[in-house]
Sequence to fold (271 residues):
Amino acid sequence: MSSFLNAAVKAAKAAGKIHKRYYGKVRDIRFKSGNQLNLVTEVDGRCEKIIFGLLKKSFPSHTFWGEETGGKLDDANYTWIVDPLDGTTNYAHAYPFFCVSIALVKDGQLLAGVIYDSLRNECFTAEKNKGAFLNGRRLQVSKVRTLQKSLLCTGFAYGVLKTLYNFENFQNFVLRSQGVRRDGSAAMNLAYVAAGRFEGFWERGIKAWDMAAGVLLVLEAGGKVTDISGKPFDLLAQNALASNGLVHSQIFKTLWAGKDEKRWVRANLSR
Fold:
């Protein structure tokens, strides 16, 4: 394990301890930008502070970008991208599906990633060209070849009340697959694709900190990740389509056979 990944794991587990300590006891719950669907708790901020404190101690010259404190990608430098609590709404309701997500990027390349589920003590790790692992066990995406035998997952962005995006997609995949899960953590969903628990994942309206570590996990586990529009994956594009690779084209065709994607394109062209 590289010094980068080792530091990220230690930081993720430190935040995970806070997750467990306050799980079911959260009192300070606020809304971001006045959106009733976009919650933030005191745990988010506390975890991000601890994560960045540990990483800065090890790598003081690096750039840091967190969901709560802000920042940006610096292509000329190593950038740590952090979601201290992915699945905040779940956490606020004591629903047991949330995680810490930490990734390292340089020159547009994902170099290392950690997703830590403290309740299950599952630590997903990946390094570029070195594979993906769960608690030290190498991960491999599933070998399911058909959409009909696939279990999929997705999410609804915070802007869903205005866009109404993804409802038709959800219905179409429920009718064409073995099931679709919507459990409120894009980072965990991507980790589960890497682990072979899901065959595919799609979502729009997600941020770099939701995706970075999970995308690297999927790729290093032998899967495929693209833009939902079929373009190469872009960390700043706010969407992702990830799969085991074998059902990728089937998911893509189903998405674009419906009306949700066409509505999305028209809505954004009209802005």
The chain has a mean pLDDT of 91. Residues 111 and 128 are 5 Å apart (CA to CA).
